[in-house]
Specification:
Blueprint lengths: L7 E2 L8 E3 L5 H12 L4 E2 L2 E2 L5 E2 L5 E2 L1 E5 L6 H19 L10 E7 L5 E5 L11 E9 L7 E2 L2 E5 L2 E4 L7 E5 L4 E3 L2 E3 L1 E11 L4
Antiparallel strand pairs: 1-2, 2-14, 3-7, 4-5, 6-9, 7-8, 8-17, 9-15, 10-14, 10-17, 11-16, 12-13, 12-15
Length: about 200
């Protein structure tokens, strides 16, 4: 049962991220990849104001599709929500009330040195004035099949590299500075999710 797998806090100072090891099985990972690959891809953009994104290859090079919440994907949304609610309750206790955006399926390819430079996710990303508060990344690629593509999260002691483990989720505050280093071999695929709520007070 997934409820029997406890989340594990990163032991480094400041706890910049929390891991949940074995969150998804290999079969579930493959199912998520089929979902993501079946949807139309676009060149990934960066936010430029409320409800606006622009392509900026000096900041980010990757392609994305967006997994909606429907009858086919309800199991995935429910499972992610369970993980994030528990991690938030045990570690962060932010005022969050749901996922306001579709899940982002992101592909970084070595052919164009796919990367995402230092950035934060926080901000008002919709006209509904919802603030991203928790960010989650799920690695969907066998880490032995690619090189580079490290998720790094900034801490008080400098950048920390999150583990590359298939099926493990990494959760961190959306205001944390983070990046994905260039992929130099193979392809890195991940699922990115945000939990939002009212503005921080």
């Amino acid at each position: 049962m997934i409820y029997q797998i406890p989340p594990v806090a990163n032991p480094n100072e400041g706890m910049p991220y929390v891991l949940w090891n074995g969150a998804f099985s290999e079969d579930e990972v493959e199912l998520i990849k089929k979902l993501g690959d079946s949807l139309p891809f676009n060149e990934a953009g960066v936010v430029n104001g409320v409800d606006q994104t622009v392509v900026n290859n000096s900041t980010r090079t990757s392609k994305t599709s967006w997994i909606p919440n429907d009858l086919t994907t309800d199991w995935l949304y429910r499972k992610i929500a369970m993980f994030l609610r528990r991690i938030n309750g045990e570690f962060y206790r932010f005022d969050v009330d749901g996922m306001y955006e579709n899940m982002q399926y992101t592909v970084y390819e070595s052919e164009n040195q796919g990367f995402y430079n230092w950035h934060t996710d926080i901000g008002v990303y919709s006209s509904e004035s919802v603030t991203r508060k928790l960010s989650m990344s799920l690695l969907l690629t066998d880490p032995t099949s690619f090189e580079g593509g490290d998720l790094e999260i900034w801490s008080s002691s400098g950048p920390l590299q999150a583990p590359k483990t298939l099926g493990t989720i990494v959760v961190f505050p959306s205001y944390a500075l983070h990046r994905v280093t260039p992929v130099t071999k193979g392809t890195r695929i991940s699922l990115v999710v945000w939990f939002g709520g009212p503005a921080f007070k």
